Amino acid sequence: MAREKIDSLTSLRFFAAAAIVAYHARGHFGLPTTFLAPFELSQGVSFFFVLSGFILAFVYPSLGPQGARGKFWLARFARVWPLHFSTMLFYVLLVPELVRFSPAKLAANLALVQGWIPSQAWFFSFNSVSWSISTEAFFYFAFPLLIKNFERTWPIKLLASFLLVLLMAAIGNALHLPVTSETAVSIHGLMYINPLSRVFEFVLGMTLAVLYRKHLVERSAPVLVGLACEAAALSVLYAFTYYTVKISTSLARLPFVQEGGKMWLEHAGVPVISFALLILVMAWGRGPIAKMLNCRPFVFLGEISFSMYLLHRLLLHYYWDHFSTEQGVAPIVLYLAFLLSLSFIFWSLIEVPLRQIIVGLGSGAGRKAVANIKIKPATSLAVMAVAVGFWNIWNGAPLKVATAPHTHGDSMFSNDFGDELRLTSALTKREEDGLHVRLNWEALKPQKIRNVVAVQLLSENNSLVRTKNYRQSEREETVNARSCFQNEFFIPAQELTYVRSLSIGLARPLGDAPTNTVVVAVEPVPSEQQDSTVAGRSTKPVL
């Protein structure tokens, strides 16, 4: 008899969510933007889509009478919408400046249709990662039609969904859409976000459930055979994910692939077969790795992974807005601890109880679910930890702002950045471990400090070596006119090879180009124990 729940697959959800967290963490905490390259970690979303199709077709091999569809849709609504709404509200409260609000966009997000609009201003308008929930909602809506006679019709439906991907790629190529765009329709919105381009992954997962029921669920095997299958599945997964970029770039030369097909191949098409194989092997559960994944700690992490997925980007935004100059292992550990604690809170207090209430809506089961909601000790501890964390964030050490008017000698230079800020000096100190830079600013009028210090590392002939971005303020601080404050940042020695000067500019968090830059010389060898003050000169922006 088939199992009602496959714990090993629940655990795998955590690892897919962790891959997406690592993908979005690139460029934070001092991690390079090439962290874990060449793996395309965003492929964890594709794994979710395949797994979703497998689980639904496994649990609902048929829906039966018309009333069963309504119960199915209600259960799916209860599964995703309460957590989607609560995290969206949390997003608005915590980082309101990043919300691209309009009544129409709000309505689209509440109705979970934002993924149908292939413009970044729409599908990333609130909690950006919820675009995948919009795509998943379409799968739920289409599932009753797809599952009908699926054991007999799966080859036709699988082929049709793949042809739909080719059609969407052909449309993107024929219209010569840009790969990405803030406001215009793009290949990214059409091939990565749009539900019609992702339905193949869901139908593939449904197909796996049919094959699993027919050929694997009751088949026994020695542990060594199970281990060999697990090793093969993980090897295939590693190979396809590691060589994704090379494979998709090679296939993009084909006339029916090009940029549209390449976008899908990079994020789903290349690794999707390896995802399918891994799900089958781990669901079969005959090897030691699957048995390890059945352990309660892994299953628990898998259960809170949905909350973790919807919260992680929000907390990264908050870190970037307030603490991006804090880098290294310690802030990574604190971020992960905070993320897991908050995910547990949302899972135990919102996701699970509201799902039970909605599924039992209008019945004794719904009222019973309300009565059975209890605050467990672990939940209380998590709430306390997060509350203390937020208290320390809001009441931490503020930005160092001088209250007296700024007075520097004539030897210091002065460069205005618009009508808001003036850079009065740039101090550099070269040591064996790298370059320490201190920027002294003067506010020309009252304002909130929300800029990014955009730094270009330039070679001797002013060629670009690399770029670095630092938040001008660790927190959103308000300064008065004539107030002064400092920025300090550090560039490791290994990043200073061939670097002879820094081009320093300011940009807004959403990426506006700096209005002015200052070039500061970098000493080629470690200096003595005192700062060198270098006069700056205005240049045209090169960012």
What this model shows, in words?
- By secondary structure, the chain is an alpha+beta fold.
- The chain folds into 2 domains: 7-390, no CATH class; 401-539, Immunoglobulin-like.
- The protein has 19 helices and 13 strands.
- The strands form 3 sheets. Strands 1, 2, 3, 4, 9 and 12 form a 6-stranded antiparallel β-sheet that branches. The chain has a 5-stranded antiparallel β-sheet with strand order 7-6-10-11-13. It has a two-stranded antiparallel sheet with strand order 5-8.
- Strand 3 (421-431) and strand 4 form a beta hairpin.
- Helix 1 packs parallel to helix 16 and helix 3 runs antiparallel to helix 17 (329-359).
Radius of gyration: 26 Å
Question: Helical residue percent?
Answer: 40-55%
Q: What does the overall shape look like?
A: globular
Distance between the termini: 62 Å
Helix vs. strand class: alpha+beta
Mean pLDDT: 82
